[in-house]
Here is the input.
Amino acid sequence: MEGHHRHDRDRTVALAALTASQLYGRARDDETAGRLTRAASLCQEALRRSPDDDLRTRIIVTLAYLDAERGDTDGGIARCEGVLAQPDHRGVERGRTLAQLGLLLMRRGDAGRALDAFRTAVPLLTGEDAYLTRLYLNRGNVYLQRLDLAAAEADFDRARDHARSAGAPPIAAKALHNRGYARLLRGELVGALDDMGRARETLAPLSAENLAVCDQDRAEVLLAAGLIDEAGEALRSSAGVFGRRRMRQQQAECELILARLQLLVGDRNGAERSARSAMRRFGAHGSHTWALRAEVTVHAAAVASGHAAPGTSSRCEEIAVALAAEGFLEPATRARLVAALAECRAGSIDETTALLAHVRLTAATSMSNRMLSARAHAELSLARGRRSRALAHLRGALDRLAVWQATFGSLDLQAASVIHGRACALLGLQCAVEDGSLATVLEWTERARSLAGRVPVVRPPSDPTAAEQLAELRALRTSAHRDSARVASLETAVRERLWSAGAPEPAEPVRVDELRERLHRDDGTYLTYFHAGKRLYGLGVTPGSERLVDLGPLPSTSELLDGLPADLAMVATRTSASMHAVLVSSIRMRLARISERLVGPFADLAGNGPVVLSATGELADVPWSMLPGLAGRPLTIARSATSWVRAPREVRVRRPGFVAGPNVERATHEVRRASSCWSGHEELTGDDATADGVRALAARVDLLHIAAHGRHNAQNPLFSALELADGPWFGYDIDHLARIPSTIVLSACELGRSGVSGGRETIGMTVAWLHAGSTCVIASPAPVNDDLACEVLARTHARLARGAAPSAALSAAVAEFPDEPIPLLCFGAGW
Here is the structure.
């Protein structure tokens, strides 16, 4: 303790020898490092010692900023106004004070006065590049809040130019980052991430605070894209940094974004807690407008959970008026929509109508507000007994979402972004089930089944950098000393580089007459399973009949499959004859139970012809071809009826290609057996079975068979991988193929599995091939015994070579082994 006190005395003595200017310099250093209380103390001492009026002004302005950062925004504003009230305060120092006042007013949410202060400061700071840079950055942020995106972008460009003149690369990077945020508000997510990513390269190494700001705004882009897990991780990390640095405004902003995220995924209690915490922090910090925005989210969570308090609607309308008066149109719109939903669910139709009449959607309206508006109008229409009008509102919203999704070339971005439309799609399904007509139910199962599947195939442009990153990732995955941080960084970079733009031409869902005409050619049956509310439904359609069945409460995947995956994994290994018999008996019992629930209600409808089936994401890993009632019949698993009906047909295989990966005992034998069925083919085995080899081979063949170990990645299904001679070959590698074979055969275990994205959209290696342009993929959602797979696929190829459709060839080959569990499935348009 004695040493500690001596250290304090030594520091006091050292400070006593400093001039006011030197003390102020140290205060600025402490401010930059986040030591706000010490910075304020040094500023106060410097102010007492300074005889220079200009220096005193700069110190007071800095103290104003420190007041605001420590929660006294009103006190900081009062300091600036006190300086400006002095009659002899003019010129550059007056401009600096006005610029600081504008920043504090912006933080408080007083946008109109902030813009006035900035506008007055500009001519006073002529030639002061460093100060003009910050002024334009801050004023651009005010324009962002008011959704005046053109003015914001112009200010960010000015800030960048002045930063370059001042020799300040970090400030230029901040301007680029903010321009990326403007692109986010325009809905240009790919461009926003590109700008923010380039700015991050400069800003992140400078300080933990800079990194946290970059990640906070990046999280908003990820949230807009529906990438929930990544957004949540970035927000929690940034909030932690801001909390440790006592940067309460930024911490509260992170909490508010997190509340929106939680509301989007249905965590209403979590959303309310996060929003209340943000509201308290904003209030304590003097950020009154921000506190109002947080309060709207509190009310939105209460309305969503059905626990809205009396007066919720009137309070939200008060907030909307206050926000709109300050130019915050987007949060004002959300407040009115929350008010309208509260009134509608309370049965107040006239009040709901009046509130919605004041809602104006513009080109800058966010996708989440568009979806919320559609739900509010749909619920109002339902309250009036106008179901068809409600469906029209929901249909229009989902069409708008599909057009937006089509600007993304990337499968995972398309799949994630459907989360914005899930609530509208599910409400549409509930309406369709109540309506009961085949046309309506089919339309809405299609809209809900594959929101991303409406987007046409768009191949991303060749990207050498992404290809190099995948090659490095391959090498790291096989390294004995794996750099996990570098692996994570590369995975993020690969994903985001492939989020390229597509073409806004979403397909319309298939009509009943189109589906029946296609089924009639082969006397086929279409089965689809979906959930509406908390119940599972099935719809069966044949050329001449249909049936809609309520299958009861929606089961969880674990409840439905109940031990089946473990049994299938065990039976795929080499076990004793007695153990094999026990496992087969258990599997049959489980399959019979699943079939009784899912297939039994359609047994007399489906006949004996081929079947096309699509299912909700919760049923993605059911081994459908093994279920009694479907086993032995040509079966194809389609993402939707629309994708199946409109897929190319009668694609004749002329040139097959085969790949044998390493460390698979029978891979080479499997390739030789299968390829012997064809008169002309190519093979890659041993050291030739590399990523580059597969890439070149895929460009030359129209059927590609890969026998290799496979690994499903549940957290990011497009990083599921095949093991090749030079390391793993990922789902993302498919985007780098110059040409896509029409038929794919994957004998690797589990690569027929799909993960479910935040929007409940299934995604995985098979979906990646189909999205890229393949017509059909043969794969398994569960492990398969290597010897058995070799025999079944060789016999499948024998039939394919004679012109059989893939699903017919596979089902006939499997039927030759009636006593063996074989979960191989045909995905896409297999017949």
In short: Confidence is low (pLDDT under 50) at residues 1-10, 454-459, 755-761.
